[in-house]
Amino acid sequence: MIESFIGVLISLIVLIWSCDLAIKNSIIVSQIYKIRPILVGIFIIAIGTSLPEFAATFQALKLNSVGIVAGNLVGSNIANILLVGGIMLYPISKLVTEERDKSTFLFFLIFSITFFFFIIFNFNLGYLSGFFLFGILCVFIFFEVRKPIDDVSTKVDLKNLSTYIIFLKILLAFVALFYSSKYFIVYAKNLTSIFGVAETTIGITIVAFGTSLPEVIATILSIVKKQNNLAIGNILGSNIANIFGITIIAILINGSINFYELLGYVDKWLFLATSLLFFVIISLKIAGKLISLSLILAYIIYFTFLYL
User: Fold this and answer.
1) Per the confidence metrics, is the pTM higher than 0.85?
2) What is the pLDDT of residue 294?
3) How would residue 199 be classed by pLDDT, with cut points 50, 70 and 90?
4) pLDDT for 127 beyond 90
5) In whole angstroms, how large is the CA radius of gyration of the chain?
6) Rounded to whole angstroms, how far apart are CA atoms 273 and 269?
7) Under 8 Å CB-to-CB from 197, ≥6 apart: which residues?
8) Cβ neighbours for 131, distance < 8 A, ≥ 6 positions apart
9) What phi and psi, each to the nearest 5 degrees, are found at residue 286?
């Protein structure tokens, strides 16, 4: 038991370090190439911080722990909104978003509602469903990359930087994220047998919380650097990446997956409720300590409820 706890702790430390490395260098990339912060958050930082979820999914499937896969997907998205979103909203009084990002928020809502139908009804998701998900993801990417880039002055000294070194550091961070999450899921699975807790519950709580830590660190770093749109993009992108990435990985490895059979009633509806709530928050630009603490408290209550 001690070995499992130590393994989980060390894995999380490496997760945090590698995330910090990825965020710092991703911000530099956005400044060099004048990329919109929310786009960097969605396509660079979110993909990097979602690697633990992808690796956890791959490892769980190898161990035939499908419950952890389902719990990790839904639990991570809930944690991203209630916990990560709560942390993001605490130090700011009002969100600042751009008009052109409204379609991004709408895409997020459509994706969330679509996935909700996949988990609330008894669907057996196979290769056809995988192609469908991949297709609408390509549509989303197409519309996002067509939006104009920001015309801002570069805040970094290009003379003293090598873009190759920067990208190498990001790659190194992603590799560290992948392997640290791999060992994290192994030790987390050991805890299921030690405490006699269901795999789905472990997936929703311990695994989801652990693999969401990179998003937490990314959000804190973004807020410290006054990059609110980077933080929003990270949450949106991470949730979108979880929905598509984890589902497609599960289909490719297992041939099919049925989330309806693996998730509880409360988990399914809370997934939808948190997605709708976050859409309202970013659309109406709501922030502040009250809403922040309410979200974090809601996550703590949910986390505790699963173990009662």
Assistant:
1) no
2) 95
3) low
4) yes
5) 18
6) 6
7) 191, 307
8) none
9) -90, 135
Q: Which domains does the chain have, with CATH numbers?
A: 2-148+180-305 (1.20.1420.30)
Beta-carbon contacts of 226 under 8 Å, excluding residues fewer than 6 positions away, are none
Q: For residue 153, name the pLDDT band (cuts at 50, 70, 90).
A: very low
- Report DSSP letters for the chain, one per residue: -HHHHHHHHHHHHHHHHHHHHHHHHHHHHHHHHT--HHHHIIIIIHHHHHHHHHHHHHHHHHTT-HHHHHHHHHHHHHHIIIIIHHHHHTT-SB----GGGHHHHHHHHHHHHHHHHHHHTT--B-HHHHHHHHHHHHHHHHHHHHSPPP-----S-GGG--HHHHHHHHHHHHHHHHHHHHHHHHHHHHHHHHHT--HHHHIIIIIHHHHHHHHHHHHHHHHHTT-HHHHHHHHHHHHHHIIIIIHHHHHHHHS-B-STTTS-HHHHHHHHHHHHHHHHHHHHTB-SHHHHHHHHHHHHHHHHHTT-
Mean pLDDT for the stretch of residues 245-250:
88
Q: How far apart are CA 182 and CA 35, in angstroms?
A: 31
- Compute the C-alpha angle 73/109/34, nearest 5°: 90
* The two structure tokens encoding residue 225: 């650097």
